[in-house]
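pinging the channel bc i need a second pair of eyes. not urgent but kinda urgent?? the chain im working w is below, pasted from the shared doc
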Amino acid sequence: MSSLEASLDEQSHGEAQRGEFIAWRYPVELEDDITTRDGATLRLRPIRPDDADALVSFHSRLSWDSIYRRYFSMHPKLSSEEVAHLTQVDYADRLAFVVQDGEHLVAVGRYDRYPSKDEAEVAFVVSDEYQHLGLGLSLLEHLAQAAWARGITTFTAETLATNRDMMAVFHHSGFPVKSGFDDGEISVRFSIEPTAESFARREEYRKGMV
């Protein structure tokens, strides 16, 4: 069996194990070391409630442009309610990953499942100085793998038409992305079922080819 076939077989086995997740249990098995395009090694892990202060600090370092592209408005400060909502997830229907460089958070990605559906909305934001290093694609990859194992089959997203970086991440993922445009915003929808193309794109990323 080739490495590709073995990987897809493993993904299929993971599908059979869907639903065997304990809500609120921190999934240490999802922690990973990732390598950026410039060769740095960063830590990717699920978010924790004790990341509250680090998340506030992360948000404060974002440029106005990055904030606007993420929240569709000027949002200079996260409220205590927002911080609690963003850091307290159940690791099943709501899951978020952070990328950490030393003590600092430099990227955050998350999905939120729609009630009683096998679809979830995905979003991510990367610190300005860490953009264009492949972190968005790595976050999407890890979110898709975790979501698929938890019974989610489709990701959706809303982004501004000017957010070319986010659209580039989606189109480089290897997933069959479909999009629509309305009033300056782009709606994105795609299956996250593992495919030969998504696996190949993941390998290309890990080798620094995309």
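so DSSP finds seven helices and eight strands in the chain. and The mean pLDDT is 87. — does that match what u expected or am i reading it wrong
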